[in-house]
Amino acid sequence: MAPATPRPAGALVRNPKLWLVPTVLSGLVTMVLALLYLGGILSPNDDLHRLPIAVVDEDRGPLGKEITDSLGKAARPDSVEWRIVGRARAEDDLASGKVYGALFVPPDFSAAAQALTTRRATARPTLTVLTNPGVGSLGSSMAAQINQVVAQRASATIGQRLAASAPDPTTKVLLADPVEVTTRVGNPIGRHSGLGLTAFYYTLLLVLSGFIGGNLIHTGVDTALGYADSELGPWHTRHRTVPISRTQTLVLKMVMTAGIALLTTSLLMFSTITILGMDAHHLPLLWIFSYCATVAVGLGVQAINAAFGGIGQLVSMFVFIALALPSSGATIPLQATPSFYRFLAIFEPMRQLTDGVRAILYFDARADAGLARAWAMIAIGFAGALLFGFAMTHYYDRRGLARFTPQPEPPRQEEAVPEAA
């Protein structure tokens, strides 16, 4: 049989059916990605909902209680979750990432304020704003700004009261803003921690490692077994098809995913910690967590690809990247995102992994800092990937839905039989 005549691109490009699927998919994916990514970051202050901030009132006079009683006036109702606790509890909450910041009222606050109208004054009354960079620079900054608004409002109120009894106009001017507000770090992190962003980028690397590695393994195995063609530049390769069921193919891909993750996890830590010098502690625990996280993502990718076939990579991209990034709470606190993203954060993997990495890097690997939940969600991810993947492939195999078998390799030119005249 004579070879088919090649079709010119000019003739094919005018075929509307050729444009339909890629045009619709490209448009939908672009629109959904734009809505997802920008929809979660446009107005964090307007979306703020119950941002946890600790307040410690140790004042032995009445002014401290007045400040705590006026907290609801500093922000919209339900925008902040004020936690009035003792010093030890506040420090513990800062050290475990349970609060984004804290406001301290010292024991002598009322006494120092009242002394300003007398000759006994030695210093201005002070309120201390504590930040928590380990929960993310933006979240910590938002909490600090809210605390500073509270402190400035308290200073103005106290100043008006003291100025009423001031003996001369000059003193009244000095008492207009009598409270000194100091800001310091409540839970320090290392200098090489990216202002609290290394946890996010490290987690992103874990997810990308599992996602990209899983898809590379998926494609590589299909090519090696003869179920997909390989093209490298002008070179085209097609292997002989190996008879294998869908279930056994998934077993092979998952085993390879777990094996190759040993190398990628080690290289990831070597690159970020040894070469770049990222601040990190609990290295054995970080390696084990990183490995399990990468494998969980990789197994999920294999399960989705096995179930959805050709569009599996697009589906897994939405599951592990598109929906996961804006709902991770890594760069913008979940409390400052719309409710849709807070819902996604319940089950999307990046939020769980980010909490685990943060706990290891910044919060001394405390279980209550998010590490326990992260381990639990990794276990659920493992189980879910195995159950979903093998349930789908077993169903396909039972129904006799064998994978597409490529055409046999065409004979080489010198072996081709000439067409009869």
What would you say this structure looks like, in words?
The strands form 2 sheets. A 5-stranded mixed β-sheet has the order 2-1-3-4-5, with helices on both faces. Strands 6-7 form a two-stranded antiparallel sheet. Helix content is 53%, strand content 8%. It has helices spanning 9-12, 16-39, 63-69, 87-95, 109-114, 137-163, 169-174, 198-224, 246-275, 283-308, 312-322, 339-344, 349-362, 371-398, and strands spanning 51-57, 80-84, 101-105, 126-131, 180-185, 230-232, 235-237. Helix 8 runs antiparallel to helix 11. The protein is elongated. Mean pLDDT is 89; it is low at 413-421. It is an alpha/beta fold and 421 residues long.
List the helices and strands and how they pair.
Layout: H1 9-12, H2 16-39, E1 51-57, H3 63-69, E2 80-84, H4 87-95, E3 101-105, H5 109-114, E4 126-131, H6 137-163, H7 169-174, E5 180-185, H8 198-224, E6 230-232, E7 235-237, H9 246-275, H10 283-308, H11 312-322, H12 339-344, H13 349-362, H14 371-398
Largest sheet: 5 strands, mixed
Helix content: 40-55%
Strand/helix succession = HHEHEHEHEHHEHEEHHHHHH
Strand order of the largest sheet: 2-1-3-4-5
Distance between the termini: 11 Å
- Radius of gyration from CA coordinates: 30 Å
**Overall residue-averaged pLDDT value:** 89
Number of domains: 2
Strand content: 5-15%
Structural class of the secondary structure composition? alpha/beta
**Unreliable runs:** 413-421
